[in-house]
Structure prediction request, 151 residues.
Amino acid sequence: MNKTLLNLAALGLISGALVFTTTTNAAEEKKPEKPAAEKAGDTKPEKKPRAIPFRGKVTAADKAAGTLTVGERVFHVTAETKISKRGRTATLAEAVNGENVTGSYLKGDDGKLNAVGIRLSPNSEGGESGNHNKKKQPQSEDSKEKRPKNS
Prediction:
């Protein structure tokens, strides 16, 4: 009887080891292979360049050269550049000196600042403001009288 128990125990250990090795092999096969570039030790994959934000006041807009100058920086405007003013599509010709501008650009390999998007917004000083639809309500004589005077 001892011999039978020893045989069963040995058979159990062998079958357990066999099951363990087949499951670990199956798990290794399911691992995705790395691309050849990563295996060879190449550098990280190229990242898409990220647009850099800017803001300021328009100092010059040259439609012929396709440039917009904001402060000391000159941004090159291309056909892909998206320009807007007051929530609608605009052109470079609509840019006015002194006008507020925000946007983003990509620095080219040649050092040029290529505009990706430009948003023009009129100044509040020139009579135009971002709230151009709101009108100031005139005050009635009654409301003027009810105000406390600052002494």
User: Anything to note?
Assistant: The longest helix spans residues 2-30. Helices lie at 2-30, 36-39, 141-146.
